[in-house]
Amino acid sequence: MSDIEIRDDRAGGRLEAFAGDEVVGHIEYFVLEAPRRALVPVHTIVEPAHEGQGIAGSLARELYAIAAREGTVVAPLCPYVVKWAARHPEEAPAADPELLTAAMDWLEAHPGRF
Q1: Element (H or E) spanning 83, and its range?
Q2: How far is 105 from 96, CA to CA, in rounded Å?
């Protein structure tokens, strides 16, 4: 796992894990602006050849770290990130139900995005 680099492609809405030049996993997300700013992960994907190496957990951890550095929160819709957050409450504060509802509404209003 030590040779994995995580990069935030904010414009593309992807937090990507690289092994060398190869993307081996990613979280697809969007930035919710209202009722307040939040990072909203929708999908977590790890390439089959790289499963079981902790990549998905590292991506989730970094997403929460980015949110903390930016002074914002995470409103997870991705089932993996929801489960990861439940196992790591010290790193992943519980999401505000109002933000989760707003995130689901945003997703419904943008059906082709994910």
Answers
A1: helix 79-87
A2: 14
C-alpha distance across the termini of the chain, in Å: 28
pTM for the complete prediction?
Answer: 0.94
Q: What is the pLDDT of residues 8-64, one digit of tens each?
A: 999 999 999 999 999 999 999 999 999 999 999 999 999 999 999 999 999 999 999
Helix, strand, coil percent content, the chain, rounded in steps of 5:
35, 30, 35
Instruction: Read off the tokens for 23.
Output: 């993307």
Q: How far is CA 93 from the centre of its chain?
A: 14
How far apart CA 100 and CA 39 sit, in angstroms, is 11
| Residue 2 half-sphere exposure toward CB, CA atoms < 13 A | 0
Return the bridge partners of 5, or none.
18
Q: What is the SS3 assignment for 78? A: coil
